[in-house]
Amino acid sequence: MGESNRKQLTALVVEDDLDCLEILTSILNKTGIIHCETARTGEQAIEYYESKKPQITFLDIDIPAPNGIETLKAIKQSNSKAKVVMVTGISDIDTVKKAVSLGAFGYVVKPFVPDKILSLLKKLNEK
Amino acid sequence: MKSNDKATVLIVDDSESNRLLLSFLLEEFDYKIEEADNGEKAVELALEFPYLMIFMDLNMPVMDGLQATSMLRSLNFEAPIIACTVEDRMSNANTLKSKGFTDYLAKPIELEAIRAVLERLDADRQTENMDFDNEQHQQRLEQLKQRFITNIPVMLTKLTSAIKQQKTADLKRIGHKIKGSAGQFGFDRATAIGRDIEKAVDRNKWEIAVDKAYSLMAELKKIEHVQGL
Q: Is the peptide bond prior to A111 cis by the omega test (within 30 degrees of 0)?
C-alpha cells in the first residue's frame, strides 16, 4: 500500500477484558493508520458508535449488557453499512450464523493473530 | 505462512475415504492435515485456526460446501477455498469463483491436478504487506504475559474465596477472564478450563464449576512455576 493512499481510520474496540483490549489496540495502533477508541460495555459501544461512527468496530461477544450480538444489532440499526468485526473466545456455529445474518464484517477468534486483523483492515480499504 | 512452518490445510468431506485419499495425496506436499465432515464444523475450524487453505466438498449433510464457503466469505475470510466436486455443472472455474471458491479440483482427484492448483495459488498469492512492527508487538505481548504471571497469586486468592463463599458470579467472572486472556499468551489449557468454568456456572453445575476451578488453580500454579523460573 503506497503512502499516498493512507488515511487515518478510526476503530472502536469493545472488550471487557483489559489484557485483550490492550493486545488488540496494540495490533491496530502499530499499523500506523488506525486511531483506536475503546469501550467496555455494549451500552458504551452503542453510544460511542452513534455519536462518532467509527469506520470499523471490533466487538467482543461476551461483554456486559447488552451482549455483543445485541450490540451488533443496535449498531446495524443505526447504520446498516457499519463494519463490525465480532471477537470471541469460541468459534460456535450458532453465534457465527447470528453474526452473519446481522451483517457482521468479520469474525475473529482469540488469540488475536495480527495477520488476520490486518487482512480485515485491507478489506475495509478495498470497499 | 512462512515456508519453514509446516502449514496446516483443512479437508472438508463427509466421506471418510475421500478425506483419507486427499490426505494421502497432500502428504506429497508436506502439509499438516486437519479434517471436518460437514460445513458447519468447517466454518467453526476455519474461523479459529490459521489454515493455509481449505479443500471443500460441495455435497455434505448438515451444511454443504457452498453454504459454508458463502458464510466464510461474507465474514471476509481470506484463505483459499478449493472446491472438490464431481458435479459437472459446478465444475467451472468462473461459476465456482462467483460462489467464493478460489479454485476447484474435479473428483477423482489426481496428484497432478493438486500440483496445478497449488502452482496457481502461489502465482496469485498477494505479496503486499501493511507495515507492521511484529517485533514490537511480540515485546508488548511478552510484557503482558509477565503481568498475567505476576497476577497469578491474586487470581488464586480470588478463586479460593469464590469457592469457599460459593460466589457463582465471581467464579464465572474469573473463568471468563482466563478464557479471554490466557490463550493469547499460549496457555491453552488454562483457557479451556476457564471456558469450562463459565459453561458450568451458566448451566448451574456448581460442583463441576468448583472441580474445574481446582483444576484451574493447579494449572495456574504450574504456569507460575514453569514461567516464573
A: yes
ipTM above 0.90, yes or no: no
Give per-residue pLDDT as tens, B90-123. Answer: 557 778 888 999 998 887 888 888 999 998 888 6
Cell 516464573, residue located:
B228
Buried b (16+ CB within 10 A) or exposed e, A83-95: bbbbbbbbbebeb
Binary contact (B71, A97; C-beta < 8 A): yes
Q: Where are the domains of chain B?
A: 8-124, 135-228
What strands, in cross-sheet order, belong to the sheet with A9-14?
A34-39, A9-14, A56-60, A84-88, A106-109
How much is the pLDDT for B111?
87
Say whether A96 and B180 touch across the interface (CB within 8 A): no
State the Cα–Cα distance between residues B64 and B87, nearest whole angstrom.
14
Global confidence as pTM:
0.76
Q: Measured between alpha carbons, how far is B58 from B46 in angstroms, rounded to an integer?
A: 16
Output the CATH code of domain B8-124: 3.40.50.2300
Nine cell digits for residue A107: 469474525
Which listed CATH number (3.40.50.1820, 3.30.499.10, 3.40.50.2300, 3.40.50.150) goes with A8-122?
3.40.50.2300
B199 touches chain A (CB under 8 A): no
Say yes or no for a CB contact (<8 Å) between A91 and B47: yes
Q: B135-228 — its CATH code?
A: 1.20.120
Q: Does pLDDT of A75 surpass 80?
A: yes
Q: Is any Cβ of chain B less than 8 angstroms from the Cβ of A100?
A: yes
Predicted pLDDT at A124: 83
Q: How far is A6 from chain B, CA to nearest CA, in Å? A: 10
- Grid cell of B60 as nine digits: 455434505
- pLDDT per position as a tens digit, A2-26: 444 454 889 999 999 888 999 999 9
d(CA B154, CA A15): 22
